[in-house]
Amino acid sequence: MHGKKYRLEINHMEYWATVMGGTCYCGPAFDMGYYNLDYDHFSAYDLVMVALREELVEIGLKIKKLSTTRVVVFLGAEMEAFTSGMPRDKQAKMVELLNIADAVAVLHNESIPFVKLLTTKPVDLVGLPFPLERVRKICPPVQKREEIELGSIMGAHWQRNRNGLVNVVALAEIGLPGTVDAWHPVEKEYVASMRAYLPIPPIRFREAFGWQDYITEANKSLLGLHLDYRNTWGRFPVDCAGVRMPCVAPPTLLTQKILFPGLCVPYYDIDGARNLVHRLVSEPGFYEETVAYAESRLEFFTPERTMERLLNLLG
Fold this sequence. Notes:
Elements: E1 2-5, H1 15-19, E2 23-25, H2 27-31, E3 47-52, H3 57-66, E4 70-75, H4 79-83, H5 88-100, E5 103-106, H6 112-116, E6 123-125, H7 132-138, E7 145-150, H8 164-174, E8 178-180, H9 185-192, E9 203-205, H10 211-218, E10 221-225, H11 235-242, E11 247-248, H12 254-259, H13 270-282, H14 284-297, H15 303-314
Parallel strand pairs: 3-4, 4-5, 5-6, 7-8, 7-10, 8-9, 10-11
Antiparallel strand pairs: 1-2
Helix pairs in contact: 3-5, 8-13, 13-14
Protein backbone atom coordinates (compact mmCIF):
# COMPACT_ATOMS: atom_id res chain seq x y z
CA MET A 1 0.00 0.00 0.00
CA HIS A 2 3.09 2.24 0.21
CA GLY A 3 2.40 5.62 1.87
CA LYS A 4 6.12 6.04 2.51
CA LYS A 5 8.96 7.58 0.53
CA TYR A 6 9.35 5.35 -2.52
CA ARG A 7 12.81 4.01 -3.31
CA LEU A 8 12.35 1.09 -5.72
CA GLU A 9 14.09 1.32 -9.10
CA ILE A 10 11.80 -0.54 -11.48
CA ASN A 11 10.40 -0.08 -14.98
CA HIS A 12 6.97 0.99 -13.82
CA MET A 13 4.86 4.13 -13.38
CA GLU A 14 5.67 4.05 -9.65
CA TYR A 15 9.35 4.71 -10.43
CA TRP A 16 8.35 8.35 -10.87
CA ALA A 17 8.02 8.56 -7.07
CA THR A 18 11.62 7.37 -6.68
CA VAL A 19 12.92 9.79 -9.32
CA MET A 20 11.20 12.75 -7.65
CA GLY A 21 11.94 11.71 -4.07
CA GLY A 22 8.23 11.36 -3.47
CA THR A 23 5.62 9.12 -1.89
CA CYS A 24 3.42 6.57 -3.62
CA TYR A 25 -0.18 6.07 -2.45
CA CYS A 26 -2.79 3.56 -3.50
CA GLY A 27 -5.69 5.80 -4.54
CA PRO A 28 -8.63 3.55 -3.56
CA ALA A 29 -6.97 2.74 -0.22
CA PHE A 30 -6.43 6.46 0.45
CA ASP A 31 -10.08 7.17 -0.37
CA MET A 32 -11.24 4.42 2.01
CA GLY A 33 -9.20 5.92 4.88
CA TYR A 34 -6.41 3.33 4.98
CA TYR A 35 -3.78 6.03 5.61
CA ASN A 36 -5.92 8.02 8.08
CA LEU A 37 -5.36 11.19 6.04
CA ASP A 38 -7.75 13.65 4.42
CA TYR A 39 -7.33 15.10 0.94
CA ASP A 40 -5.87 18.36 2.22
CA HIS A 41 -2.81 16.25 3.07
CA PHE A 42 -1.74 16.68 -0.56
CA SER A 43 -1.40 20.43 -0.09
CA ALA A 44 1.99 19.68 1.48
CA TYR A 45 3.26 18.44 -1.91
CA ASP A 46 4.42 20.64 -4.79
CA LEU A 47 3.03 18.17 -7.31
CA VAL A 48 0.79 15.10 -7.36
CA MET A 49 0.83 12.70 -10.30
CA VAL A 50 -2.39 10.78 -10.88
CA ALA A 51 -1.75 7.61 -12.91
CA LEU A 52 -5.20 7.57 -14.44
CA ARG A 53 -7.31 4.45 -14.35
CA GLU A 54 -11.07 4.11 -14.12
CA GLU A 55 -10.94 3.74 -10.34
CA LEU A 56 -8.80 6.88 -9.94
CA VAL A 57 -10.91 9.40 -11.86
CA GLU A 58 -12.98 10.59 -8.90
CA ILE A 59 -9.99 10.36 -6.57
CA GLY A 60 -8.05 12.66 -8.89
CA LEU A 61 -10.94 15.13 -8.82
CA LYS A 62 -10.91 15.10 -5.01
CA ILE A 63 -7.15 15.71 -4.87
CA LYS A 64 -7.47 18.76 -7.13
CA LYS A 65 -10.60 20.16 -5.49
CA LEU A 66 -9.74 19.50 -1.85
CA SER A 67 -6.05 20.46 -1.82
CA THR A 68 -3.87 23.27 -3.18
CA THR A 69 -1.29 21.07 -4.90
CA ARG A 70 -0.58 21.06 -8.62
CA VAL A 71 -1.86 17.94 -10.37
CA VAL A 72 -0.58 16.31 -13.53
CA VAL A 73 -2.71 13.52 -14.94
CA PHE A 74 -0.83 10.61 -16.53
CA LEU A 75 -2.89 8.69 -19.06
CA GLY A 76 -1.21 5.48 -18.03
CA ALA A 77 -2.83 3.05 -20.48
CA GLU A 78 -3.73 2.76 -24.15
CA MET A 79 -6.31 5.34 -25.30
CA GLU A 80 -8.90 2.62 -25.92
CA ALA A 81 -9.03 2.02 -22.17
CA PHE A 82 -10.38 5.55 -21.76
CA THR A 83 -12.46 5.92 -24.94
CA SER A 84 -14.04 2.45 -25.06
CA GLY A 85 -13.31 0.55 -21.87
CA MET A 86 -14.46 3.20 -19.40
CA PRO A 87 -18.14 3.60 -18.39
CA ARG A 88 -19.90 6.73 -19.67
CA ASP A 89 -20.23 8.38 -16.27
CA LYS A 90 -16.53 7.92 -15.59
CA GLN A 91 -15.67 9.28 -19.05
CA ALA A 92 -17.58 12.49 -18.30
CA LYS A 93 -15.80 12.88 -14.97
CA MET A 94 -12.47 12.13 -16.67
CA VAL A 95 -13.05 15.07 -19.04
CA GLU A 96 -13.69 17.26 -16.00
CA LEU A 97 -10.46 16.04 -14.38
CA LEU A 98 -8.45 16.72 -17.56
CA ASN A 99 -9.74 20.30 -17.52
CA ILE A 100 -9.13 21.15 -13.87
CA ALA A 101 -5.72 19.44 -13.63
CA ASP A 102 -2.64 21.55 -14.33
CA ALA A 103 -1.33 19.38 -17.18
CA VAL A 104 -1.87 16.05 -18.94
CA ALA A 105 0.96 13.65 -19.75
CA VAL A 106 0.51 10.94 -22.36
CA LEU A 107 2.47 7.79 -23.16
CA HIS A 108 2.12 7.86 -26.95
CA ASN A 109 2.61 10.85 -29.24
CA GLU A 110 -0.21 9.75 -31.53
CA SER A 111 -2.73 10.33 -28.73
CA ILE A 112 -1.75 14.00 -28.26
CA PRO A 113 -4.07 15.51 -30.93
CA PHE A 114 -7.13 13.72 -29.55
CA VAL A 115 -6.39 14.50 -25.90
CA LYS A 116 -5.88 18.17 -26.78
CA LEU A 117 -9.49 18.22 -27.99
CA LEU A 118 -10.63 17.14 -24.52
CA THR A 119 -8.88 19.82 -22.45
CA THR A 120 -7.60 23.37 -22.48
CA LYS A 121 -4.61 22.41 -20.33
CA PRO A 122 -1.10 21.57 -21.65
CA VAL A 123 -0.77 18.08 -23.15
CA ASP A 124 2.44 16.37 -24.21
CA LEU A 125 4.43 13.16 -24.33
CA VAL A 126 6.35 12.48 -21.13
CA GLY A 127 6.64 8.69 -20.80
CA LEU A 128 8.22 6.62 -18.07
CA PRO A 129 11.76 6.91 -16.70
CA PHE A 130 13.88 3.77 -16.92
CA PRO A 131 16.44 2.83 -14.21
CA LEU A 132 19.25 2.17 -16.69
CA GLU A 133 22.11 2.62 -14.22
CA ARG A 134 20.54 0.10 -11.86
CA VAL A 135 19.93 -2.38 -14.67
CA ARG A 136 23.50 -2.16 -15.88
CA LYS A 137 24.75 -2.93 -12.34
CA ILE A 138 22.61 -6.04 -11.89
CA CYS A 139 22.63 -7.22 -15.53
CA PRO A 140 26.21 -7.41 -16.83
CA PRO A 141 26.82 -8.91 -20.29
CA VAL A 142 26.25 -12.69 -20.19
CA GLN A 143 26.25 -15.60 -22.60
CA LYS A 144 22.74 -15.54 -24.01
CA ARG A 145 20.59 -18.67 -24.02
CA GLU A 146 19.03 -19.58 -27.36
CA GLU A 147 15.61 -18.70 -25.99
CA ILE A 148 13.04 -16.08 -26.95
CA GLU A 149 11.78 -13.90 -24.11
CA LEU A 150 8.01 -13.59 -24.53
CA GLY A 151 6.73 -10.19 -23.51
CA SER A 152 3.08 -11.08 -24.06
CA ILE A 153 0.88 -10.83 -20.99
CA MET A 154 -0.40 -14.38 -20.95
CA GLY A 155 -1.96 -13.95 -17.52
CA ALA A 156 -3.72 -10.62 -18.03
CA HIS A 157 -6.95 -12.27 -16.91
CA TRP A 158 -7.64 -15.68 -15.41
CA GLN A 159 -9.95 -16.57 -18.31
CA ARG A 160 -8.53 -14.47 -21.16
CA ASN A 161 -4.99 -13.93 -22.40
CA ARG A 162 -4.08 -10.55 -23.88
CA ASN A 163 -1.85 -11.24 -26.90
CA GLY A 164 -0.96 -14.70 -25.60
CA LEU A 165 -2.32 -16.70 -28.54
CA VAL A 166 -0.67 -14.52 -31.20
CA ASN A 167 2.73 -14.83 -29.55
CA VAL A 168 2.42 -18.59 -29.02
CA VAL A 169 1.57 -19.02 -32.71
CA ALA A 170 4.52 -16.82 -33.67
CA LEU A 171 6.83 -18.89 -31.47
CA ALA A 172 5.55 -22.05 -33.14
CA GLU A 173 6.35 -20.63 -36.57
CA ILE A 174 9.79 -19.41 -35.48
CA GLY A 175 10.69 -22.78 -34.00
CA LEU A 176 12.95 -21.60 -31.18
CA PRO A 177 12.39 -22.31 -27.47
CA GLY A 178 10.71 -19.60 -25.44
CA THR A 179 10.64 -18.40 -21.87
CA VAL A 180 8.03 -16.31 -20.09
CA ASP A 181 7.52 -14.71 -16.71
CA ALA A 182 4.40 -16.74 -15.93
CA TRP A 183 4.10 -19.52 -13.38
CA HIS A 184 0.45 -20.37 -12.70
CA PRO A 185 -0.71 -23.88 -13.74
CA VAL A 186 -3.46 -22.24 -15.82
CA GLU A 187 -0.77 -20.79 -18.10
CA LYS A 188 0.98 -24.11 -18.55
CA GLU A 189 -2.30 -25.94 -19.21
CA TYR A 190 -3.24 -23.27 -21.76
CA VAL A 191 -0.12 -23.97 -23.82
CA ALA A 192 -0.21 -27.74 -23.28
CA SER A 193 -3.81 -27.94 -24.52
CA MET A 194 -2.78 -26.59 -27.94
CA ARG A 195 0.31 -28.72 -28.46
CA ALA A 196 -1.68 -31.46 -30.19
CA TYR A 197 -2.55 -28.99 -32.94
CA LEU A 198 0.34 -26.49 -33.00
CA PRO A 199 4.10 -27.26 -33.16
CA ILE A 200 4.81 -25.14 -30.06
CA PRO A 201 8.50 -25.33 -29.03
CA PRO A 202 9.43 -25.83 -25.38
CA ILE A 203 8.48 -22.84 -23.21
CA ARG A 204 10.24 -22.36 -19.89
CA PHE A 205 7.81 -20.90 -17.36
CA ARG A 206 9.36 -19.00 -14.47
CA GLU A 207 8.20 -16.97 -11.50
CA ALA A 208 9.84 -13.61 -10.84
CA PHE A 209 9.86 -12.32 -7.29
CA GLY A 210 9.74 -8.67 -8.25
CA TRP A 211 10.96 -6.72 -11.27
CA GLN A 212 14.66 -7.04 -10.39
CA ASP A 213 14.36 -10.82 -10.45
CA TYR A 214 12.50 -10.64 -13.76
CA ILE A 215 15.06 -8.39 -15.49
CA THR A 216 18.08 -10.42 -14.35
CA GLU A 217 16.48 -13.54 -15.86
CA ALA A 218 15.44 -11.73 -19.04
CA ASN A 219 19.10 -10.69 -19.45
CA LYS A 220 19.91 -14.33 -20.26
CA SER A 221 17.55 -14.55 -23.27
CA LEU A 222 18.73 -14.10 -26.85
CA LEU A 223 15.95 -11.75 -27.99
CA GLY A 224 12.47 -10.55 -27.14
CA LEU A 225 9.14 -11.08 -28.91
CA HIS A 226 6.12 -8.96 -28.01
CA LEU A 227 3.29 -8.89 -30.56
CA ASP A 228 0.92 -6.45 -28.85
CA TYR A 229 -2.13 -4.84 -30.46
CA ARG A 230 -2.23 -1.73 -28.24
CA ASN A 231 -1.21 1.84 -29.07
CA THR A 232 0.75 2.55 -25.92
CA TRP A 233 4.19 3.21 -24.40
CA GLY A 234 5.48 -0.37 -24.19
CA ARG A 235 7.77 -1.19 -21.27
CA PHE A 236 9.01 -4.47 -22.72
CA PRO A 237 11.14 -3.03 -25.59
CA VAL A 238 12.92 -0.79 -23.05
CA ASP A 239 13.60 -3.82 -20.84
CA CYS A 240 15.11 -5.57 -23.86
CA ALA A 241 17.30 -2.62 -24.81
CA GLY A 242 18.41 -2.26 -21.20
CA VAL A 243 19.84 -5.79 -21.22
CA ARG A 244 21.32 -5.50 -24.74
CA MET A 245 18.69 -7.72 -26.36
CA PRO A 246 16.83 -7.06 -29.64
CA CYS A 247 13.04 -6.94 -29.55
CA VAL A 248 10.58 -7.77 -32.33
CA ALA A 249 7.29 -5.93 -31.78
CA PRO A 250 4.70 -3.74 -33.53
CA PRO A 251 5.32 -0.02 -34.12
CA THR A 252 2.15 0.71 -32.13
CA LEU A 253 4.44 0.54 -29.11
CA LEU A 254 6.16 3.93 -29.03
CA THR A 255 9.29 2.55 -27.38
CA GLN A 256 9.65 -0.05 -30.14
CA LYS A 257 9.62 2.67 -32.82
CA ILE A 258 12.30 4.61 -30.95
CA LEU A 259 14.61 1.74 -30.02
CA PHE A 260 14.11 -0.94 -32.68
CA PRO A 261 12.69 0.68 -35.85
CA GLY A 262 14.18 -2.08 -37.99
CA LEU A 263 12.39 -4.79 -35.99
CA CYS A 264 8.87 -3.37 -36.21
CA VAL A 265 6.17 -5.71 -37.55
CA PRO A 266 2.36 -5.40 -37.63
CA TYR A 267 0.56 -7.27 -34.86
CA TYR A 268 -0.63 -10.18 -37.02
CA ASP A 269 2.43 -10.36 -39.29
CA ILE A 270 3.68 -13.75 -38.11
CA ASP A 271 5.76 -14.29 -41.25
CA GLY A 272 7.45 -10.91 -40.79
CA ALA A 273 8.23 -11.67 -37.14
CA ARG A 274 9.64 -15.08 -38.05
CA ASN A 275 11.85 -13.66 -40.79
CA LEU A 276 13.26 -10.96 -38.50
CA VAL A 277 14.00 -13.46 -35.73
CA HIS A 278 15.73 -15.83 -38.15
CA ARG A 279 17.80 -12.95 -39.51
CA LEU A 280 18.85 -11.92 -35.98
CA VAL A 281 19.88 -15.48 -35.22
CA SER A 282 21.72 -16.13 -38.48
CA GLU A 283 23.40 -12.73 -38.99
CA PRO A 284 25.58 -11.70 -36.01
CA GLY A 285 26.31 -8.36 -37.68
CA PHE A 286 22.62 -7.50 -37.92
CA TYR A 287 22.11 -8.53 -34.28
CA GLU A 288 25.00 -6.35 -33.08
CA GLU A 289 23.99 -3.40 -35.25
CA THR A 290 20.43 -3.57 -33.87
CA VAL A 291 21.61 -3.65 -30.26
CA ALA A 292 24.06 -0.79 -30.87
CA TYR A 293 21.31 1.40 -32.33
CA ALA A 294 19.05 0.76 -29.34
CA GLU A 295 21.95 1.63 -27.02
CA SER A 296 22.33 4.97 -28.78
CA ARG A 297 18.67 5.83 -28.10
CA LEU A 298 18.45 4.81 -24.44
CA GLU A 299 19.23 8.29 -23.14
CA PHE A 300 15.68 9.30 -24.11
CA PHE A 301 14.43 7.06 -21.29
CA THR A 302 16.80 8.15 -18.52
CA PRO A 303 15.30 9.85 -15.45
CA GLU A 304 17.05 13.10 -16.37
CA ARG A 305 15.60 13.33 -19.90
CA THR A 306 12.16 12.16 -18.76
CA MET A 307 12.14 14.73 -15.97
CA GLU A 308 13.02 17.44 -18.51
CA ARG A 309 9.93 16.54 -20.52
CA LEU A 310 7.76 16.69 -17.41
CA LEU A 311 9.11 20.10 -16.38
CA ASN A 312 8.63 21.44 -19.90
CA LEU A 313 5.01 20.26 -19.80
CA LEU A 314 4.42 22.02 -16.49
CA GLY A 315 6.06 25.21 -17.76
